[in-house]
Design a protein that fits this description.
With 253 residues, this protein is an all-alpha fold. It folds into 2 domains: 92 residues, no CATH class; 148 residues, no CATH class. It is built from 9 helices and no strands.
Length: 253
Amino acid sequence: MLIIIFIFGLAIGSFLNALVYRWHEKKSLFSRSICPKCGVKIVWYDNVPLLSFVFLRGRCRSCQAKISWQYPIVELITGFLFLFSFIKLSSQLPISNFPFIISLIRNWLIIFTGLFIFLYDFKYLEVEDKIVLPASFLILIGNFLLGFSFTKIALAVIIGIGFFAGQYFLTQGRGVGLGDLRIGFFMAASLSWPQILVALFLAYIMGAMVASILLLREKKKLKDRLPLGPFLVVGTFLTLFWGEQIIIWYLNR
């Protein structure tokens, strides 16, 4: 079972890589994969998640152009996160009951959407509404099926959107972009109250640390833009899996 779930996660990671590239380039999701360097169509045995990259030694079979490490890394991360989510939930709920199934689908959707946000914002400095918003509403439906409090969800949405809206208007769009408001909605849908506060805190701490290191090493300048989405996604994932423990630790300090 665990091996099957990991392989499924690898396949989803492979699809995620294709989705990010094709969505940005406005290419069909149903056409055959091609090498972006030479344009040759990729045969199925050169498109197996993770294994093809290893067997091809990270190069296109046709033109020998290097294949980006993004592809196996995203596949591995997705596989491990899908597997970890299953293991963690199975330690809390019987795997055959309705809450477990809905919780697992919900968590996998959060992971998929979060990784899409991470990649898309990191590569293109954009947030794609047509993916993020529908996924966020599906996550909300899952929450209601699981009996989440409407009041807590509503409060999280107000905080998630309001937090970034306030920064946007105060800085006239220089501090955060409108896309960050949509990520705030995704975070609220995924975490509810009060976990969203934990995610925001973690994200901004990580963002400040990375920005400081880049400035000190002169990799970035103060006027340069650093994508916030990846930090918000990591904060969301950490809170999704360990938010309760972090809150309990903080309150019992």
